[in-house]
């Protein structure tokens, strides 16, 4: 397994506001432990019905999140790729990926998040995306994808069910395809996976060539291959 680290920008304005942004970011990541209180798919759907409006506003305040999404896309996606965004939410990763890929399909359990995602994609004038309200477990693509990405979805999955989700992602990919996962770190907040857990879950599902890219002091991107 290889590892890299992306450090914070040194632009003067970002430097000035860094302590505030860092405090907000840390509070938010710690706050995501609320997902432990969502015991079922229905509970997740209800949560995002009321949470969706504030969701993007909150992330928009953190340059680290945008940087992480850009890094994810830079690391994983090539021109002409057919990409699946798992747990796409309001399509933040879908939109960044669609700038580069041939087509991006975004799937999400919450019809309310998908509704907002459709509005965002329309506003951006993108015509290479397709957004579907479905769970990962129920999704049956007609064709496998070149790349599968997922951003901040894994914390919603109970640790014992994560291997099954990784297996779905493995099955959604063509042989030789790549998965890219963006989130925080289990070392920072326990709803996320530690280095060891990511490595174990990816390896158990059949992925190889695992790379971990730490972004700032709080985020992590994991990239791995489905063998040919
Ligand atoms: C924290 S949000 C992340 C959204 C988006 N990827 C982002 O980076 O902003 C997690 C999303 O995962 C979705 N989700 C949770 N469990 C899911 C499942 N089993 N299948 C599909 N989507 C799921 C939720 O509905 C929610 O929109």
What does this structure look like?
By secondary structure, the chain is an alpha/beta fold. The protein has one domain (2-225): Rossmann fold (3-Layer(aba) Sandwich). It has 7 helices and 8 strands. It has helices spanning 12-31, 41-60, 63-76, 92-98, 111-124, 162-172, 195-204; strands at residues 2-6, 82-86, 103-108, 129-133, 145-151, 173-184, 208-215, 219-225. An 8-stranded mixed beta sheet has the order 1-7-8-6-5-2-3-4, sandwiched between helices. Strand 2, helix 4 (92-98) and strand 3 (103-108) form a beta-alpha-beta unit. Helix 2 runs parallel beside helix 5 (111-124). The model has no long low-confidence stretch (mean pLDDT 91). S-adenosylmethionine (SAM) is lined by residues 44, 48, 87-89, 92-93, 107-110, 113, 135-137, 151-153, 156.
From the structure above, extract its key features.
228 residues; alpha/beta; Rossmann fold; 8-stranded mixed β-sheet; 8 strands; globular; binds S-adenosylmethionine
Topology:
Elements: E1 2-6, H1 12-31, H2 41-60, H3 63-76, E2 82-86, H4 92-98, E3 103-108, H5 111-124, E4 129-133, E5 145-151, H6 162-172, E6 173-184, H7 195-204, E7 208-215, E8 219-225
Parallel strand pairs: 1-7, 2-3, 2-5, 3-4, 5-6
Antiparallel strand pairs: 6-8, 7-8
Helix pairs in contact: 2-5
The chain binds S-adenosylmethionine (SAM).
Q: Treating each run of at least 4 consecutive H or I residues as one helix, how many helices?
A: 7
Shape from CA axes? globular
**CATH class category:** Alpha Beta
CATH topology name: Rossmann fold
Offer a quick outline of the entry.
The protein has 228 residues and is α/β, with parallel strands linked by helices.
């Amino acid at each position: 397994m290889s590892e890299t680290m992306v450090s914070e920008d040194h632009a003067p304005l970002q430097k000035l506001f860094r302590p505030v942004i860092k405090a907000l970011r840390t509070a938010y990541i710690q706050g995501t432990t609320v997902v432990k209180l969502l015991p079922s798919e229905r509970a997740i759907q209800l949560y995002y019905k009321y949470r969706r409006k504030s969701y993007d506003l909150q992330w928009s305040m953190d340059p680290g999140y945008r940087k992480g999404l850009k890094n994810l896309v830079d690391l994983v996606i090539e021109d002409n790729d057919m990409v699946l965004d798992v747990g796409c939410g309001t399509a933040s990763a879908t939109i960044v990926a669609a700038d580069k890929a041939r087509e991006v399909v975004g799937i999400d359990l919450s019809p309310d998040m998908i509704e907002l995602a459709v509005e965002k994609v329309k506003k951006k004038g993108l015509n290479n995306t397709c957004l579907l309200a479905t769970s990962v477990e129920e999704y049956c693509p007609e064709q496998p994808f070149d790349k599968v990405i997922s951003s901040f979805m894994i914390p919603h999955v109970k640790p014992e069910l994560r291997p099954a989700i990784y297996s779905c992602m493995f099955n959604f990919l063509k042989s030789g395809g790549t998965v890219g996962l963006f989130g925080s770190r289990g070392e920072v907040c326990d709803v996320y996976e530690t280095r060891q857990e990511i490595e174990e879950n990816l390896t158990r599902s059949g992925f190889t060539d695992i790379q971990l890219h730490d972004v700032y002091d709080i985020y992590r991107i994991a990239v791995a291959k489905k063998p040919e």
